Amino acid sequence: MPQNDICHVLILEDMDTDIELLKRVTKKALPEAVFNVARTREEFLQKIKWVVPHVILSDYNLPDYNGLEALTHVHATYPHIPFIFVTGALNNDKKVADAVFSGAAAYVLKDELSKLRDILPAIMKTSKEKFEREEQERQRMRQAKMKLQKAVALLEKSDLAYDKKLELVGILKEVQGNLTKG
Predict the structure, then answer these.
(1) Is residue 10 within a helix (H) or strand (E), and if so which, with residue range?
(2) Alpha-carbon distance 57 to 115, whole Å?
(3) Distance between CA atoms of 179 and 14, rounded to whole angstroms?
(4) CA–CA separation, 60 vs 17, rounded Å?
């Protein structure tokens, strides 16, 4: 992401000292970062709707929530947002595997926070490129749907025989339906 763009960071963490450390390290990698902090499941689900973040930094274990649940929610709702575990709890191979297989962009141990500063710019760049590709595809699909709607309208007004018109309208509507599904 370009240096002058604001980067919205959502931190899911319940410890004040860790929140401050995350902010400090993140600012070194992303100077234009602005932060939103959630300490509970309810706050997290609420704040992710207020301002869709560009990146999420999450602890693995929280009193009423865990990072994998948060990651699952994020990927179902906002699949383009990179989710990074920043935790002391991923020193277990199974938890690390679960995090990676669930789609975490990375994980950083709290006692190695300097790694976060090193990986954030690359993760943000990859995320931005992925979002732009997806947006181009959405735009291409919108344009194709509009052209199909126009073709249906023109066909309905044409002088073709009624049975040929019906056949062509049916084909165009089927294509339009396939575009809507995909």
Answers:
(1) strand 7-12
(2) 13
(3) 44
(4) 16
Give the β-pairing of 33-38 and 7-12.
Answer: parallel
**Which pair of tokens denotes residue 111?**
């006692």
Stated pTM of the model: 0.71
Contact yes or no for 7/34 (Cβ under 8 A) = yes
- 56 neighbors 84 (Cβ within 8 angstroms): yes
Q: How long a stretch of residues is the chain?
A: 182
Closest CA to 32 of 66, 1, 57, 11: 1
∠ Cα 134 139 144 (to 5°): 125
**Distance in angstroms (rounded) separating the CA atoms of residues 115 and 71:** 21
Q: Can you give the pLDDT at residue 97?
A: 66
Q: Which residue has the tokens 């994020």?
A: 74
Q: pLDDT at residue 15 above 90? A: yes
Intra-chain end-to-end CA distance of the chain, in Å: 29
State residue 138 phi and psi, 5-degree precision: -60, -40
Distances (CA, A) of 53 to 56, 57, 84: 7, 10, 12
Tokens 């699909």 belong to 141
